[in-house]
Amino acid sequence: MASPSSTAATNVMLAIFEKKTVSLDLYRPLRNYIAFNYSEREAQNLEDDLQTLKQYRSEIERVPAASLPARRDILQNYYKALCAVESRFPISPDKDHINSVFFTWYDTFKNKQKAVQQNIHLEKAAVLFNLGAVHSQMGLSLDRSAVEGRRQASHSFIAAAGAFAFLRDNVAMKASMGSSTTVDMSVECAGMLERLMLAQAQECVFENTIAKGSTPGVCAKISRQAGIYYEEALAALTVAPLNYHFDKGWLAHVQLKAALFYAEACYRYGMELHEKEEIAEEIA
């Protein structure tokens, strides 16, 4: 589920909880594969790398206790390590591959649903999802009652959008092969979350634009773009496979934000026309 901002002085925004997994030993299957297919000496030479991978996986499994920036760094390092593993170790049900590794991840929004695959792309997709989630939590944790806090929050939401966009474009399809999949890592869900995070980033920009006393025309353009992002997220939430997957509160929240920023854009544009004394178009 998502967690809303609790600061009364700021507008409500959403952050995403991380996906949960189960304990997994990558060290032993990978080491055995190296020793069997190459040599024990080669396995010993790679001992430090294998131990580092084991440590990263162990940290991923824990309930997040580190600071959000530290959690972000762990996820980024583990993702890089997984890319190296993918290029060197075949993990699949094939008898000649590493076939004793099963990756298990639970759906963030329906936590009784899970995906279990012998597919490293599932692991990579989950790590990218969690990276986006952590960035969203970083954005929500900042003090958005001040200009600098809103600026930093906008950057965090943009980073979250980037993680979800990368998931959508590069990994989601590969992680959805087979029957054991979850909706939260689908192309559609990753795309919706990208638009939601972009909307929240744009909302922070709009709040700063108002605070700086920018012209009504500038405010109208920025608020309209925020509204468009919310409308795109809403469109994704109202069709399959997402229309029955999210709590009704999600739909209500995004729907309200889309309407709010459309109205805000109209209001600010009307102010601009009034200043230009274009009364007929202002009334329209």
UniProtKB/TrEMBL annotation:
One Pfam entry name: BRO1
Record PANTHER family: ALG-2 INTERACTING PROTEIN X-LIKE (PTHR23030:SF34), PCD6 INTERACTING PROTEIN-RELATED (PTHR23030)
The protein's name: ALG-2 interacting protein X-like
Residues annotated as domain BRO1: 11-284
Organism lineage: Eukaryota, Viridiplantae, Streptophyta, Embryophyta, Tracheophyta
Origin superkingdom: Eukaryota
